[in-house]
Amino acid sequence: MKTYIVGNWKLNFTVGEASIYLHKLLKAMPNYRDVEVVVAPSLIALQPLSLQVDRHKMKLAAQNAFYRDTGAFTGEVSFAQLRGIVDYAIVGHSERRYILREDDKMIAKKVAAAVRNKITPILCIGETESERAFGETADVIRDQLTGGLSEVSDDMLDKVIIAYEPVWAISSTKAAKAAAPDEIAEVVRLIRASLVDMYGAVAERVPVLFGGSVKPVNAGAYLTVPGVDGLLVGGSSLILNEFVDIIEVAKRVRS
Ligand code: PEP
Prior knowledge:
Elements: E1 3-8, H1 15-28, E2 35-40, H2 43-52, E3 59-62, H3 79-82, E4 88-91, H4 94-98, H5 104-116, E5 120-125, H6 129-133, H7 137-148, E6 161-164, H8 181-199, E7 208-211, H9 216-223, E8 230-233, H10 240-254
Parallel strand pairs: 1-2, 1-8, 2-3, 3-4, 4-5, 5-6, 6-7, 7-8
Helix pairs in contact: 1-2, 5-7, 7-8, 9-10
The protein binds phosphoenolpyruvate.
């Protein structure tokens, strides 16, 4: 299985800045066949960057898209429009769940729309700090997983990636704290067991990523958590040398 290193640039970089950063990243990053490097720029930068990116070295992801392919949906951009431009899409990121009020029903439609349009959805799930404090982590994870995958049939499962992102560990969250590897291991075990309950043994092949305050110094520890196949990186993906270091850690840890 490949190791995934996915950079989520969120609402950062103008199109020009994104292009310069991508240029520098393509020059600086090593090309490791078993490490799949993906970056998720703003929607507006995706089309120009798709002409610039070397897809042998790196892939592009959307941070979001709309679940209907066409129609009267002012302001939306569909997965159908992104087909051929991106290979991946982040779906259900906690910022979209809690700031933009996306629910599991909408997230499920987006996951299905991505797969329908040959884009691999990276479905983000994770509990908030208070849900963890109240002992609700397992229920939240199961609900978000079954909710988000409710339109994914057995034959679609190999097109899906799951990212476990505890909301309390995301660096932009107030008083964020880095998750301990054993805390991650416990939830990743639960995710994998839930997937097998839902889909049977084929679910063992679903890549599960971890995200939340990943930096070069902790990337190795997170990548060696059993069941973790890669990292979703926010803040550190905006800093060229840090993101390159994380890619290098991934290569070292996995070889
Ligand atoms: C994220 O928001 O997906 C994320 C993982 O951010 P950070 O790495 O900055 O915590």
